[in-house]
From TrEMBL, chains A, B:
<dbReference type="Pfam" id="PF00440">
    <property type="entry name" value="TetR_N"/>
</dbReference>
<protein>
    <submittedName>
        <fullName>TetR/AcrR family transcriptional regulator</fullName>
    </submittedName>
</protein>
<feature type="domain" description="HTH tetR-type">
    <location>
        <begin position="10"/>
        <end position="70"/>
    </location>
</feature>
<dbReference type="InterPro" id="IPR001647">
    <property type="entry name" value="HTH_TetR"/>
</dbReference>
<dbReference type="InterPro" id="IPR009057">
    <property type="entry name" value="Homeodomain-like_sf"/>
</dbReference>
<dbReference type="InterPro" id="IPR050109">
    <property type="entry name" value="HTH-type_TetR-like_transc_reg"/>
</dbReference>
<feature type="DNA-binding region" description="H-T-H motif">
    <location>
        <begin position="33"/>
        <end position="52"/>
    </location>
</feature>
<dbReference type="Pfam" id="PF16859">
    <property type="entry name" value="TetR_C_11"/>
</dbReference>
<dbReference type="InterPro" id="IPR036271">
    <property type="entry name" value="Tet_transcr_reg_TetR-rel_C_sf"/>
</dbReference>
<keyword id="KW-0238">DNA-binding</keyword>
<keyword id="KW-0805">Transcription regulation</keyword>
<keyword id="KW-0804">Transcription</keyword>
<dbReference type="InterPro" id="IPR011075">
    <property type="entry name" value="TetR_C"/>
</dbReference>
């Protein structure tokens, strides 16, 4: 039976993405090279360049694969305040983690100087995450826990924007107390008057 | 009478910063070089390298000089809602301006890969702007227009974080209607219950 080229390609692709994530964790983004990824994956450098433009594109694909491994939705316990609190605590913890932070920083640098990669990162990595939060807010709105007159895309950015700002510009600590403060302000903005406390 | 070296240095410094901003406007950041700045300012390249580490540091100093030319405070008409609306409309317009946006993008790229420059940009360029907004919010709190129990640094990031997120990650349009939406959400979060509308 002849070897199946599609299966062989898929095996190589998976080996390359796994190698990229391993090396990223071991050496950091700055010291990552296409040569090293190829060597770790047991493929030729030209195999990588046939499918990707450079290490930024490889890492983006690896992160998208990792992000889409789960179902990606935000848990719905029926309490939008509790669910947002858990989500934002986890998000702030990710930005505070030195290794994850270094990866996000590296991708941000690459996307700032590469418009095509920026669109890919937005549409394939960021947008699904933002849309998952939007869906959770929509569910909250259906049960009267979110004001009907707010733009939910703006509410999503009200949650993530301050965290991103603080992380990128290093304007303050990324602690759990900070995460709760972000959620408290957002809830004050979106909770219907009848449900507000204080 | 001998030439005064301090005055000559200050004259050179001003010529270099002015040349850097002129060239930035004419050619954009990517094509800006220390050589070109030196030629435009009529100084030797080594004069620039004596005072700055590279073009990023020169541009940062030029932007700080430009930013501190005015008094930097946020106007206080007595109406915190109106003042925030004017401020955020102007901020969104700046991020939507292709030339200003390109400069901010360039500085952001440089600071992401240069910790020392990142600290300088934060402390000398960003922090004074954020603190000016904080001061306006403090004045609003003194007259009862801002809830006493919110962390004002977090409120400042609630205003700027979403804009920065949307600009950097290109998740949506930067229009006046968007700016007003940011302010409306922030006001809903910070306005004391007794003053809330709707």
């Amino acid at each position: 039976m002849p070897a199946d080229p599609a299966r062989r390609n898929e095996r190589s692709r998976r080996a390359i993405l796994a190698a990229a994530l391993e090396l990223l964790a071991e050496t950091g983004y700055a010291d990552l090279t296409v040569e090293r990824i190829a060597a770790r994956a047991g493929v030729g450098k030209q195999t990588i360049y046939r499918w990707w433009r450079g290490k930024g594109a490889v890492i983006l694909d690896a992160l998208v694969d990792a992000a889409t491994a789960g179902d990606g939705s935000v848990p719905d316990t029926g309490d939008v305040a509790a669910d947002l609190r858990a989500l934002i605590r986890a998000t702030v913890a990710e930005f505070a983690d030195p290794r994850l932070s270094a990866t996000t920083r590296a991708i941000t640098i690459e996307t700032l100087s590469d418009d095509a990669l920026a669109e890919q990162a937005r549409d394939r990595l960021l947008r699904p995450q933002l849309d998952a939060v939007r869906s959770r807010l929509e569910a909250g709105r259906r049960v009267g826990q979110v004001r009907p007159d707010v733009d939910l895309d703006q509410v999503v950015e009200l949650l993530f924007g301050p965290i991103y700002h603080r992380w990128l510009l290093r304007t303050g600590p990324l602690t759990e107390a900070y995460a709760d403060g972000v959620v408290d302000l957002a809830l004050a903005a979106i909770t219907p008057a009848g449900l507000r406390q204080g």
